[in-house]
Write a structure and sequence with these properties.
Elements lengths: L1 E4 L4 H13 L5 E3 L10 H4 L9 E3 L5 E3 L1 H11 L10 H30 L10 H22 L12 H15 L8 H11 L6
Parallel strand pairs: 1-2
Antiparallel strand pairs: 1-3, 3-4
The structure holds glutathione (GSH).
Length: about 200
């Protein structure tokens, strides 16, 4: 297996933190997003959407989507478990993963991209849309804050892939000037998650 990634990017981090939690290491190649290496013909042959990360499997196929890569690694190395064991647990972890990704991670990325114009060399930038996305992320975080008032982690008392995705997203948001960490229960939960060795 071989990982093509950009370790500083949020989705790159999702995979690298997941691997650390599993105690795994993979050979990897850093892809220079700023220089547009991910847009080259060679890279698009691995992922036609031109995004990182991509995992090359031993049969030569290419798996993209960070959550799918983590799920694949969980299948290969089931312990410790981060995607759930029972059908019910798996479904609730999936629910929270999708809530975090759709309602917080994507809006944070849209806000960053549209307000800063970071990728204006490759996409149309609409600053007003960025502001709307930033507000949507804030609203979603406040809903999650209320949930965390009565739950240690997103799925009750168990740290999972959904917590990793949220922590990575909020760390990225803070680094790019969107501070979503101030609400009481989010702050408590975040301090607990980032104290894990995988986040060091
Ligand atoms: N849903 C995809 C999103 C991948 C994605 O958006 N990756 C970003 C880095 S976090 C990227 O490659 N950006 C480069 C670009 O947009 O040109 C996943 O989970 O892997």
């Amino acid at each position: 297996m071989h990982l093509y990634t950009q370790s500083a990017s949020p989705n790159g981090q999702r995979v690298s933190i997941f691997l650390k939690e599993k105690g795994l290491e993979l050979p990897m190649t850093e892809i220079d997003l700023r220089a547009g290496e991910n847009l080259s013909e060679e890279y698009r042959a691995k992922n036609p959407f031109g995004r990182v990360p991509v995992l090359e499997l031993d049969d030569g196929s290419y798996l993209s989507e960070s959550q799918a890569i983590c799920r694949y690694m969980e299948g290969m190395h089931p312990d410790p478990n981060f995607f759930g064991t029972t059908d019910e647990e798996q479904a609730f972890i999936e629910m929270w993963s999708r809530r975090v990704e759709l309602n917080i991670m994507i809006p944070v990325a849209q806000a960053f991209r549209n307000i800063t114009g970071f990728f204006k060399d490759r996409e149309k930038v609409v600053p007003e849309w960025g502001e709307v996305a930033a507000e949507a992320a804030q609203t979603a975080v406040s809903i999650v804050n209320d949930h965390l008032a009565n739950n240690e982690y997103l799925t009750g008392n168990r740290y999972t892939i959904a917590d990793m995705t949220l922590a990575i997203t909020l760390n990225f948001a803070k680094n790019v000037g969107q501070d979503l960490l101030s609400a009481e229960h989010i702050a408590r939960w975040h301090a607990e998650v980032v104290a894990r060795p995988a986040f060091s």
